[in-house]
Every structure is written in structure tokens, then in C-alpha cells.
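User: two proteins, same treatment. go.

Assistant:
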Amino acid sequence: MFGVTAKQWREANPNLKGNIRDYATINELICLSNMENINAVLINDGIPQGERLVKLNKIAIQQMLILKSDNYRHSLK
């Protein structure tokens, strides 16, 4: 979701405390929470890991596009 692994992030940011989630935007945290819930549903449905990864990646991209869109922000007002 962030484009790097936790290890890669730590190596690239040795002076920052905590982990990548501590520096995520609100949109990234919303999407991450959604992905964790969707993943649990897919696991419960018996979807293999590789297939889940492909589905979750597509959904995450779609959600981030929606969360970043001007139309979405205007609908919250």
C-alpha cells in the first residue's frame, strides 16, 4: 500500500521514531484499515494469498483515487 516494505521504510528513514503508519496520511490510514477488513473477509472466504494480494491492490488503488478526489472532499461538506 505504501510502495515499500516496513524494512525498506525503516532503512530509508533511520532518524524517524515509530513505523510507517505513524507517518501515514489520514487517507492512507483509512485505506489501510479498509484493506485489513477486506483481507479478513477474503481469508474467511478461502481466497488464496496471491489472489487476495491482486484484489487488495486493485481495491487500494481505487480507494486512494476516491479519497484524493475533489468530488469526495466536496461531498463531505
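Protein 2:
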Amino acid sequence: MSTPFRCGFVAIVGRPNVGKSTLANALIGAKLSIVSRKAQTTRHRINGVLTRENEQFVFVDTPGFQTRHGGAMNRMMNRVVTQALSEVDVVVHVVEAGKWTPGDTQLLPLLPRDKTILVLSKVDMLKHKNELFPFTEKLLKEFPYVAVVPVSAVKELQLDQLLREISDRLPEGEPMFEADALTDRPMRFIVAELIREKIFRLVGDELPYGCTVVIEQWEENETGARIAACVVVERETHRPILLGAGGNHMKRIATEARQDIVKLLDKPVFLDVYIKVRKGWSERESALRDLGYE
């Protein structure tokens, strides 16, 4: 008797900066969601696809659920999280091992009680491993998780166990994507996110969150790609921060982003990155929609 094929959507949720995007990338085996030490790096819902012999996982990497700050962008990102939770087959609630905060508690009422797996992330960073069991027992009293899996996405520990737990709860059905598909997002979107990651990593401590990236030109053929990317900021004072002394920040952002894009496209890339000021864009829902936010 042949093994039935299973396919479904899996939401990866949690408070900001618990390692959701790192976990999503590790499970998919490709860099689709951007990663940085800064909280709230992910702003969009990103579907990443992993297809194996008898199963297809469609991972929905969501923004961190934000409870401390208001504003149009955070309201929009929280709507993305809430919508994802209502539409998926399995929910993976990521909590940093040994660290439970009020932000984690505030997400619990949104979680479906019959299909949420608790993932304890960054277990390789836990100094006292014997604290993991009592910590897990405490969380199971807070919420009736259907399974608990401690993982390290960076060290690739327990990822197969997590995939087994998810697969057991996916519905039977035909695959929704081609076997070699990695995401339902266009390549322009992924490239814009890679550039934004470099901005977060290089000037994230100096530049506020009023910054996004728009791909304004994309020409591609078999021999290479020519891409023009616009970094949209909210104030004129943000421009010199982004440029850096002698334009060094911007040069490094463009160079490191281009290297990642070359790996992604597997061909030579010419990348032009420049800056535009659009005042107050992150506080206006109409501007957010214009710039590709959901």
C-alpha cells in the first residue's frame, strides 16, 4: 500500500526576535526570509516551500507579533499574523528556550488549541540544559500544545523531528507547488528583502525602521541580470546615515547584497542601489500598500 501524499500550510509565529526566520530558512534549505539581530526584521508573510517524497510543506514565515508599539506598520504586520493563524493546517509557535516574556503570553489567545506545536529555539545557546524540562512543563500548563520540539536552526538540531511532527498533522492531498519551487514570492521580492537585510545588519542601530526597498528595474537574460533598487527612507536625515562616510555604508550594502543575489540567480549581477525620501510612509496605510505591504 503506497504512502499517501500530505500537503499543507504551516505558520511559523512568535514574538519578535525568537528566530522564526532562521528556522524557516533552515527547514526550507534556502535563504528566503531575512535575518538580523534586530527585532521586527520580517515585515511580510513569506511562503517557503519544501517538497519531499511523500509531503509538501508550505511554511508561512510571519512578522513577530508586536504588542508594545502601535503605528500603521505594526497594525498591518499584526493583521498578517492573525490572518495566517486562521488559514493554516499547522501552527509552529517559536519560543526562545529558557525565556518566556509577556509578549509570548499575549500571543497565546490567538493560537489554535488543536494544531499548535511548541518549538523551543536556540537550545544550543542555553547555558544550563537541565532547565529545559521544568521550563517546558511550565509552558504546557500555560497552553495545550500538541507537541514540543527543542531545536537549534543554526546547528540544524532536531529539524527532522520537527518535520515529522508537522507532517503527521498535514492533510492528505496533491502538491500545490512544483517539486523544485522554493517560494510563491517573485524573485524581485526576495532580492528586495536581501538588500533590506544588509541595511539592517550594517546600519540597523543607527537607522530607524522607516526604511524599505523597492526594485524599480529588472532586466535579466541567460548571461546576467541588471537590477536597480531604491531604498525608501522617511527623512532627509536618514540619507547620510545610510550613505556613511564617503558612501562606504551604501557601497558595502550593495556589494554584500549583490553577492547573495548572484548565489540566488546563479549568474552575474549588476546592482545599482540608490536612496529616495518619502516622508512618513510607514505611518500611512495607503503608502504601505503602494510599497507592497499587505
